[in-house]
Amino acid sequence: MKAPIALLFLVAWAAAAEAGYNRPALQDAFDPNALRIDEGWHLGQTVPDVSVQTESGQSRLYDLIDGRPTILILAYYTCHGPCPTTIRNLLEAVRPLEGGNYRVLVLSFDKNDTLENMRRVVRTVGPVPSSWTFGLLSPEDSQRLTQAVGFTFFFSERDRAFIHPTVLTFLSPNREVTRYLYGTSPREQDIRLALAESRDRIGRLNELVDMAALVCYRYDPSRSRYVIHPALIFGGIGLGVLGVTGIVSFMYGRSPKGGRKQ
Predict the structure, then answer these.
(1) Structural domain total, the chain
(2) Three-state SS across 185-222?
(3) Is the per-residue pLDDT at 31 higher than 70?
């Protein structure tokens, strides 16, 4: 009788040890790419006109966009990692664009965030242009907006933090999703081109210049940045080869050894 009991005890102990051993492994095996947005599905989608709690009171999202290209950051204000870093880096990256005809909206998806949390973040990142707005979303509106742009998040009990994509979402004046830029350190050039891509109406002279620059660049989703269009590269190489060939032919024709009569 003692042998079967001991065997059962040994099996139970081994199962518990195996479960304890595999739990961290399963957690550590989480693939961040699972949070990447399905751009093919969400690009071109219109965002809902949710209610936003700002420092000055309740506002509607469409009123905050105000018919201008908009950069949307979905974050939470108790974050100590990528959220404040992204906000600070974006603030620095758009300094050359100050005065431009665009908006920046930083909205919290965390139902537990408060105005005091929001004010603390604003104080931390420093002075922001008047074109920036920080706000809070209700749980219902947070769900509507995040689903519309494909933004997925969940709370990790182990890390005591939200796991979410670090992404800038660009919206057109018609409130449609036009581009995503990933990472905590956006480049000024990529922001400028993404804003130009978001405009669906005639802009001012400097905006037209940016829109013309789009002809020379294309968006590379694998690198989440704009790169020089390959056609320009190969075209430039072709012109260079033709130019060198023409120069060599011209110099050879001028040379006495090239057969020119004296």
Answers:
(1) 1
(2) CCCHHHHHHHHHHHCCCCCCHHHHHHHHHHHHEEEECC
(3) no
Contacts 24+ apart (CB under 8 A), 200-203: 200/172, 200/173, 200/174, 201/173, 203/101
Determine, yes or no, domain membership for 195: no
Q: Is the pLDDT of residue 19 over 70?
A: no
Q: Give the domain range for residue 55.
A: 32-184
The answer to whether position 177 is within a domain reads: yes
Query: Tell me, what CATH number does 69's domain have?
Result: 3.40.30.10
Tell me the backbone φ, ψ of residue 174, rounded to 5 degrees: -90, 15
Q: What is the mean pLDDT of residues 220-246?
A: 56
Cα–Cα distance list, 59 to 55, 136, 137, 149, 260 (Å): 10, 10, 11, 20, 81
Helix%, strand%, coil% for the chain, nearest 5? 50, 20, 30
Q: What is the CA radius of gyration of the chain?
A: 27
Is 214 inside a domain boundary?
Answer: no
Query: Does residue 93 or residue 31 have the better pLDDT?
Result: 93
157 lies in a domain? yes
Q: Are 151 and 164 in contact (CB under 8 A)?
A: yes
Instruction: Inform me whether the pLDDT recorded for 82 exceeds 70.
Output: yes
